[in-house]
Amino acid sequence: MRRAQVWRWQIPMDAGVVLRERRLKTRDGLFLCLNNGEREGWGEIAPLPGFSHETLDVAQAELLAWAQRWQQHGDNNMSALPSVAFGTSCALAELYDELPQTADYRAAPLCTGDPDALLPVLAAMPGEKVAKVKVGLYEAVRDGMVVNLLLEAIPDLRLRLDANRAWTPLKAQQFAKYVNPAWRDRIAFLEEPCKTREDSRAFARDTGIAIAWDESLREADFAFAAEPGLRAVVIKPTLTGSLQKVREQITTAHALGLTAVISSSIESSLGLTQLARLAAWLTPQTIPGLDTLNLMQAQLLRRWPGSALPCLEKDALEPLL
Ligand SMILES: O=C(O)CCC(=O)C1=CC=C[C@@H](O)[C@@H]1C(=O)O
Ligand SMILES: [Mg+2]
Predict the structure, then answer these.
(1) Residues ≥6 apart with Cβ < 8 Å to 89
(2) For ligand 1, atom 9: residue with the closest CA
(3) How far is the centre of ligand 2, averaged over its atoms, from the C-alpha of 64 (Å)?
(4) What's the pLDDT tens digit per position in 35-76?
(5) What is the residue-wise DSSP string for 3-51?
(6) What does this protein's UniProt record list under function (predicted)?
(7) Which of 11, 175, 200, 256 is the most exposed, having the fewest neighbouring CB atoms within 10 Å of its CB?
(8) pLDDT at residue 159 in the model
(9) Mean pLDDT across the stretch 269-277?
């Protein structure tokens, strides 16, 4: 017998998490649990404010309708809303043992402010050392100095940078000027340096710093293509859609010789551990961008190994179905 349950949840964020110039005080989302006989599968549906087009309320209405159709008729058509399609497809994949358990819990540590805080984390990191630094929040010159400082301090470090389209071509040039030319190839990639793709391409061409597309993937006129200076695409499943669609994008990227990086949309620990499994399965050569749990004050239902945050159980969730 099929049974679908839906819960809504809210987790307080760490003070100071700012997304697209908006302070994110809480992270809000939904869980879906599907049962069929002895089998069980979970999924997380958590549109990210400022990034997802659908609101949580719209996603909730769609999810409840989907869950009822599945329970009554076994109907598993995918929603057109990316967050709903992702969460429902994860729950179905767990239910039918199609999402392998092995996970890649390495996460490129994220630095949004103080580079000194990153040094001990990197020193303790086993194997390949990769970190991600947000740039474009302060002066371009300061960003350049931070990048130099980290690359100088840790000779086997590679950096991923993310400007979230903050720079004009001039600012991007100022940044590049400050980065020691001998170290530019240790910048694995810089996500979306400029406001337009054309300016970002020109930046890669002029500076020799490789770029990656993130925001671009979700634009209507985007098509996957190998381009000079383009090294990677950042795939955020909650913003992309079903597991099937995520797999297709990864396959397309790999066929073009691009690195595909599975990345967080600030999911709860339940969603993040599923992304770690997805990464181990579909992008085993690439450290995923999943270091966002510490932006939250608690984990939910499933623990991220090694996290010291408290883990809230089902009684902290609000049942909706
Ligand atoms: O990609 C990562 O390593 C972590 C996730 C991350 O950086 C982001 C997640 C969600 C929204 C953004 O602020 C940011 C990004 O732009 O990639
Ligand atoms: Mg990005």
Answers:
(1) 43, 78, 242, 243, 244
(2) 265
(3) 30
(4) 999 999 999 999 999 999 999 999 999 999 999 999 999 999
(5) EEEEEEEEEEBPTT-EETTEE--EEEEEEEEEEETTEEEEEEE-PPTTT
(6) Converts 2-succinyl-6-hydroxy-2,4-cyclohexadiene-1-carboxylate (SHCHC) to 2-succinylbenzoate (OSB).
(7) 256
(8) 97
(9) 98
In order of their start, the domains of the chain are 2-99+305-319 (3.30.390.10), 110-294 (3.20.20.120)
> Is 185 within any annotated ligand binding site?
no
Check if 236 is active-site.
yes
Q: DSSP letters along 39-107, please?
A: EEEEEEE-PPTTT-SS-HHHHHHHHHHHHHHHHHH---PPPSSHHHHHHHHHHHHHHTT-S-S------
Identify the residue whose C-alpha is closest to ligand 1 atom 2: 289
Among the listed residues 129, 132, 171, 236, the single catalytic one is 236
Tell me if residue 314 is catalytic: no
| CA 191 / ligand 1 centre spacing (Å) | 10
Per-residue pLDDT tens over the stretch 156-208: 999 999 999 999 999 999 999 999 999 999 999 999 999 999 999 999 999 99
Average pLDDT of the segment spanning 91-111: 94
* pLDDT confidence tier of residue 300, bands split at 50, 70 and 90: very high
Ligand 1 binding pocket (C-beta < 6 A) is: 19, 51, 108, 110, 132, 162, 164, 214, 263-266, 289, 291-292
Terminal C-alpha separation, the chain? 16
